[in-house]
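Late entry, evening session. Most of the bench is empty. Finally got around to the prediction I had been postponing all week. Sequence below, unchanged from the version circulated by S.P.
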Amino acid sequence: KIEVVSSGMDSGAGLRLISKGETFYASTSELTKKSLLKTAKALSAGVSSKTPKIKINLKPAKANVNFKVREPFANAQEPCFTHFVHKIKRPPSEVKIEEKVRIVKEANKKARSIDKRIKQVMVGYGDSIRKIIIANSNGTLAEDERMQLLFSVTVVVKEKGILQTGTETKGGFIGWEIFDEFSPEEIATMAARRAILMLEAQKAPAGEMTVVLSSSAGGTMIHEAIGHSLEADIIQKGASKYCGKIGKRIASSLITVIDDPTLPNKRGSYRFDDEGNPSQKTILVKNG
């Protein structure tokens, strides 16, 4: 059965202040000039009042990628700059709720039919549109618009008291056309087969092993082993094991890691990052 169907809209603004290497943050859900000024004053209360006041002239930032460009705002009172939008063939907002419920039920039915050992199936569908504006004291004014769709199936199997789980998730900054590539039944089948594979798998012996990883399967490991240690604030504090390692070997010569948020329709892609910097392809590790 369908347990939860919900929709809503959230809005707000976050203000960040950096002083003497420390970062302070405050937010408000009221998008008015009065509320923003109140939040800014509260945020800056603990910082020296000797900081000189400056006038900032905001200029629209130039992006490195534009998959699709809309016309600037028609309302002259609003800032005029272009949106970045991934190519969406069929926006989820144009799909009736009944159709969204239908694909959830189809996936649930398919998953339960695959094996009698399947004890529980959870299917989730969600879509959202995020509109983001970033303005900073360097004079940068940047905007991003992200339409996201996610469809997930989780299957729980049980045999002889042993439980295993399989999950398959499809989505990204993409529209309803994703189901032309992956049907709800196919996604459900992938999740069920993964759970069954885990249930029937032999227990791995302890010890050091040689493993082979698919290029599409090592994301989490790379994220933990490299991603966090290359975060700018960690580097600035000298707390990363990669500090001072540019040009030096840190891995096998078979390893190349690329950070590329310019790829179309991917969940990690964006026009500008949360600092207002334009996205770009960056080679983090090249041949080790």
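Two things to note before I forget:
The beta strands are 13-19, 22-28, 59-60, 118-135, 140-159, 162-172, 257-259, 282-285.
The helical segments are 33-44, 97-114, 178-181, 184-200, 219-227, 232-236.
Will write this up properly tomorrow.
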